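Bug #77: duplicate submission created two jobs. Keeping one. Sequence:
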Amino acid sequence: MKRPSSIARNFIIISAALVISGCASTTKNETSNSACLVKRAAFDVGSGSTKMVVAEVDKCEHKLVSILLEAQRGVPFKEALIQAKDNNFNSDIKKKAVNALGELKKMAKDMGATDFSAMATSAFRTAGNGAVALKEISDKTKIKMRVINQETEARFGYLGALGHIKNKNESFMVWDIGGGSQQMTKNIDGKWNYYLGKIASVSFKDAVLKKYYNKNAQTPNPLRKERALRALQLSKEYAKKVPVAFRNLSDTKVYGIGGVHYYSLRNQTKIADKIYNQEDLYRTLMERSQMNDKELGGEYSQTDVTNIALVLGHMQSLNINNVEVLKVNMAHGLLIDEASW
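Kept job's structure:
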């Protein structure tokens, strides 16, 4: 097993390979050597959901040949930790994880995948029994799994997004929000710049509950207008912790990845072009703050509306005009990192 530091050193090499491969001479063979092709299933074991991407990969060129399948299952690791008195994963959440991963793995095998690798993030970093629980889940599912630090998580998200960004010469940032952490990542002339935040979907929802509701409240919905505006202000307060390098992004193209951007906000705003602005989010926040969990629907209803306040507050504080969402998660970057297979 390679340590996160050795993984990190490969990112610059792989990122360069991605750019070079896009500019390669047309005189090269158009078809990859069959010995270089492999079907892989990569898993992003997040704090609120587990995502899987199955793809054919050219391991020699470090690039995706084709995406065969993308799927996800809700496994509320972060919520389980919050409910636990000892900050440990209990048997119920571990069983849910094994069942979800087993189901996803079967789908991957049906698509011809032969290699399986997973990386776990925030919830496993903070759980008292994170490493032990992950080994138990790994042993039962026969999937290679490991916990990564937040910096590596940020780089995998960036690497996954890189293949979807057409103009790599413009100033851009990748913004990834999950259940328990968020990452803002820029790479300027080979130098990495990060914001590694602890406030994300579940943690922000819980902060809103703690600050504006009685202790027995289980959901923030309906948020109502007054609390929606308070939640928006709370997000702005958290955004003050963002480093100076990310403070004024009006001239920076911002790409949103992960479940909060691509699924929660895209679906709630009903944007057609996968680009939302501050006005879109404010309008949607005011509309959906009047709805309860049942009216909102879906397994993530408790965090959907506070997700809007979280993102909008940060956009206003950091002068982000628009966010273009990409269907990318950490698993896309994991697929082409040879150290992980």
